[in-house]
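To assess whether ligand presence alters the predicted conformation, the chain was also submitted together with S-adenosylmethionine. Input:
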Amino acid sequence: MTDRLPPGLYLVGTPIGNLEDITLRALRVLRGVDRVLCEDTRETAHLLAHYEIHAPMKSCDEHKEQVCAADAVERIRAGERLAMVTDAGLPGISDPGARVAAAVAAAGLQVVPVPGANAALTALVASGLTAERFLFCGFLPSKAGARRTELERLQAMVAAGGEPLTLVFYEAPHRILEMLEDVAKVWGVECGVVLARELTKLHEEFLRGGVVDVRAQLAERERVRGEMVVLVEARPSVVANADEESIVALMERLMKDEGLSEKDALKRVARERGLGKSEVYREWTRRPGRRARGA
Ligand code: SAM
């Protein structure tokens, strides 16, 4: 079995929770390679032990990927068979692997995909949302301003495309409430979402509905845990941004009714909303019928 594998890089999909979600071919490849490049050798050690596979492992996390890629090219040139795996799912999908694959392909060497589980597609097919057109967006930026900007960029893109599609995001449990709040601001409170949590695991769960309802269900919980995928029903004709309007309305009220200067009103809104002054200023200058200061 071992000597049937030709030299090359084997990108092997591994389970996203349920250890049974690994293909027979993946197991054969993992048994047949000279070395397994791992995002985290401790995680992969569990998987290999479970299937009694004794291949040597080498760490290839995102910080080492460039070095690892150069080393992989040399080894494959010398006739080695290398597998690349991550902690879960497909290498290269919000995980290390793509740079190693690119380097090996650029060197004219063999890159062999060995398909397996993937959280985004697993969530999508069970979501009930359209899977005909979808966009995988990975993780949003962790900083509030950048996250909002990225959601707005996506909204503009969908609007320009003129067709509804499903957006697929990965998100961490400690940011999920903020993220859904931003989705409501950018895509509107009516926007449909599906939150797929703990896929393939004992406590697998799908929350489906309007973004506000889904957020409220999560907010009621003492603690939100687990791995999650968020799917957003993105429509091109969204009338959203209730928050932007309220920032504008608040600015106007403070300036008109309380006689604050624009600068003081900006400061106050930023403080009250927990936003940066530049973010409030950006919203304020984007209000309909107005032009940015100095423009
Ligand atoms: N390479 C992986 C793949 O192919 O799906 C994704 C790796 S990414 C670093 C990890 C993120 O994927 C998690 O934070 C979560 O958003 C999502 N994820 C992974 N496993 C999951 C699961 N069992 N249920 C829900 N989401 C999962």
